[in-house]
Every structure is written in structure tokens, then in C-alpha cells.
Amino acid sequence: MQLFADACLSLPDTELRLVPGWVDAALADDWLAQLLADTAWQQPEVRLYGRRHPVPRLLAWYGDAGCHYRYSGISHAPLPWTPLLNGIRQRVEATAGQRLNGVLLNLYRDGQDAMGWHSDDEAILGRNPLIASVSLGGERRFDLRRKGVSRIEHSVALTHGSLLVMAGATQHHWQHQVARTRKHCAPRLNLTFRFLRSGQS
Ligand SMILES: O=C(O)CCC(=O)C(=O)O
Ligand SMILES: [Mn+2]
Predict the structure, then answer these.
(1) Measured in angstroms, how far is the CA atom of residue 120 from the centroid of ligand 1?
(2) Ligand 1, atom 10: nearest CA belongs to which residue?
(3) pTM higher than the cut 0.90
């Protein structure tokens, strides 16, 4: 059974819901300006073949106390919810119909910033994790491919004020990326809300 009656993307073995104008442009502008100014951005390094490379974007992890999240090979303690992030979380929870206890913020400063192929399938997210992703700022292409297949099967444009919800078995069968591009891109800020099982109170 599909979780969402109005699912916009009907790929096999997924539950994907894309809401392009989830918030209006004026509110999205306001969130973007505040988050750009107030977020405690970090640029962790990853080790690849013995060499250290800064990840090609800026990151920040906020969440309930105890919601430690591992990315770029390191466990990150959560920063406490700000009033704005908590307000956005409540709105996302109302649309997604699920409690969420952490948010990873990604800042793609230009077209050179990117996120490689991956699934959000860490054990701490549980069996069929719901990931709710809010996009602010410049539009970027979000690609999906089946695990084990290199060809991109589907792409969607993630626009200012949109919400993409991935649920069900999506993370078992599919990977996603935001690819680097030579096109001019305005800065894009993405918030992916998650529910960490070990962080539940
Ligand atoms: O920037 C995006 O839309 C994707 C972010 C993402 O996949 C993640 O944070 O796991
Ligand atoms: Mn992801």
C-alpha cells in the first residue's frame, strides 16, 4: 500500500511524494535568509585512499538531545533546536504524518557543491525510514537510480519551497544524488528531517 494517496513519483519499490510549492516563496525566502545567517556550518573531511578531502558542501546537524548522527565517518552530537528549525520541523511533521527528531542541513554554495550517490539506510534510521527534505534557494536536480544499476532512472527538480518525502522501502532499493554541475546555480539550502530510533524519548 502506498503511504501517500497523492504520490507524484511512481517508481517501483518507492514511496515518494513531491510537493513543489509546499511553502510560498516569501516564507521560503525568509527561512533561507535566517538559516544562511544563523546556522553553525561545518565542512567535515572524509578520508579517501588515505587522503583527506573536505566534503563538497557545508553541513550542520540539529536534533533532540541524544540523537547522535554519523556522517563523513564521524559521530556528530546534535546542536539544540532553534525556534525556527523547530517550527519548520512541526510543519514537516504535520505534512509527513510522522515525528522527526533530527535534521541535517546541507548548503550547496554553487554548482561545484554536490552530494554523491547514497541511500539513507543507516541502521539507526530503522527499517523503512521516512526522510522529509525541504529545499530552499537555487534549484538543483535530484537523481534516483536503482541499487546496483549505474544509469539514472528518474530526476526531479527540487525547487525553492518544495518538500520531498521518501518513505517505505525506497532506501532499500534506490540511491539518490545531487550531482555537480557546470550550470550557474544560486546557493541551495536543503534540510533533511529524520527520525533516529536510538534518539527517541
Ligand atoms: O540535498 C538534497 O536534496 C539531498 C540531501 C540528502 O540526500 C541527504 O542529506 O541525505
Ligand atoms: Mn540522502
Answers:
(1) 9
(2) 120
(3) yes
CA 34 – CA 108 distance, rounded (Å): 16
Ramachandran class of 190: left when φ > 0, alpha when ψ lies in -120 to 50, beta otherwise: beta
* Residues with a beta carbon under 5 angstroms from ion ligand 2: 120
Q: Where are the domains of the chain?
A: 16-38+56-199
Q: Which three cell numbers stand for residue 201?
A: 524519548
Q: Considering every ligand atom shown, identify the ligand nearest to the alpha carbon of residue 164 and give its number.
A: 1
Q: Match domain 16-38+56-199 to its CATH number in 3.40.1050.10, 3.90.1200.10, 3.30.565.10, 2.60.120.590.
A: 2.60.120.590
Radius of gyration of the chain (CA): 16
Q: What percent of the chain has pLDDT over 70?
A: 95
